[in-house]
Amino acid sequence: MIVDEIKREIIQNGKAKLADPGRYIYMKRQALASINLVMASLCYGVSFAFTGTLLPLIREYVDEESETWLAAINVGVMILGSYLGLLVAGCFGNKKCLVLTDIMSIAGWFCLSLASDFLTFGIGCTLVGFSSGMKTQVSLTYRVEIPEKDLRGIISTIITSAYMLGILMGHLSAIIFPWRAAMRFCSLSPIISLFTITLIPESPTWLLSHGYKDEAKKIFFWLRGQTPQSENEFSNMMKKQTGSEGCAEIGSNLRKMCSKKFFIPFVISAVLLTAQSGSGYDVLVVYTEDFLSNMSSQINTGNVTILFDIISLTFCILSCFFIKLMPRRTIFFCSSAGTVITLVLLILIIIYDWSGDILTLCLCVYTACVNLGILPVSWLVLTEIFPESKRDLGICVSTGFFSFFTFLLVKLVPILVFRVGIVAALALFIGIVTICNFVLFFIMPETKELSLHDMEEAIYQGKFYKCFEMVGCKNQHYIVND
């Protein structure tokens, strides 16, 4: 699927530089190297989804309050996983870090499948969540390094689509299998991921930072081909490496975080991820059946859950084509507008107790809007805007922030629903998305068709912008001077 999509992308591009038949060899190599990233995203989706349908099935072992803690633990430990992933990958390499995360995930799922008390469930959730945080940190770094700029958008959105497929698998497993068998079924994704690690090379950036220049050069040209453009990009990568970093980099992270070249992209990514998490989609995934039953007693929660997952996967795949054809900003803001409108309609439907069919239709439109723009664009822009020397740290801090904010929502929103009602939670989501979009309108850059080097140089020079035409008007968006 990945190869076919990228091949179609290349054929339709129409640029003379893409006419070289030898280019397809490197396209296939980039696709093969991305397979493990697809599996990593699938694992993350499965771990995020199992709380929505599997936790309600274990209420004979834990009470409802303990259930919310298990859901929060699964999300909360992703914060620690992100930071540990940065340290482990910095010391031992990204590839070895991925192996460790898969082993931890497999152990976590089998621990959950054998659990019969809160402590064992907590250990299993901790292992699964911890490994998901580490895997996300490393795979996001790979996601931006492997593909060239013409393929970066489509590969990134395919990887995001795998996250939706993982959610679908997690929900389906709870319906098809007994819950213990479902836990073991979920362990298949990290097992397969462990085997696909052989397809992915070590990160060229990590190799350069540790002095392995020849090996880094060999891997980089194996992926991209040896062309004037790739040679120039590799040369720029070498210039930015000031020597071995690895474990010694731990002590310099605070200095990096104080730099404006780090702070400005972090603010943008933090607001983007706040908008994504604050849209309520992640909370809905975690508490699928409980939220749906609170909205209406007229809908079949199991069937509607699977319907949502299919819509999410479909529109996430469609976003591949929209991201290719349209500016990132346009997709994000249109998607956000649709999300806010459908949330307002949901409030009206719940207040006036309209039919379950209308509620289901509105929820389907809401799911489509989130997955068409907010979710894929947020993660794509996050991987693009950090400078190379600060990318690992930037992605680590950003994903840690996302996990922390999602942890707060997962823990506090059920309390809000219990004490005030589901309408209050939906109003909270509307407020978060609206405020974030207002801020992003002024600070979110357009990154479409810019190389990573161009973006880094633009931030270094103090004005990061991309001109684009929309409804006949030209707009420029700047990042303030350094």
UniProtKB/TrEMBL annotation:
The protein's name in its UniProt record: Major facilitator superfamily (MFS) profile domain-containing protein
Major facilitator superfamily (MFS) profile domain mapped to chain residues: 29-448
Taxonomic source organism: Parthenolecanium corni
Membrane-crossing residue ranges in chain numbering: 31-57, 69-94, 106-131, 151-177, 262-284, 304-323, 330-352, 358-381, 393-410, 416-443
SUPFAM superfamilies linked to this entry: MFS general substrate transporter (SSF103473)
Keywords from the UniProt entry: Membrane, Transmembrane, Transmembrane helix
Membrane topology field: Multi-pass membrane protein
Broad class of the protein's primary localization: membrane
Gene Ontology cellular component terms for the protein in this record: membrane
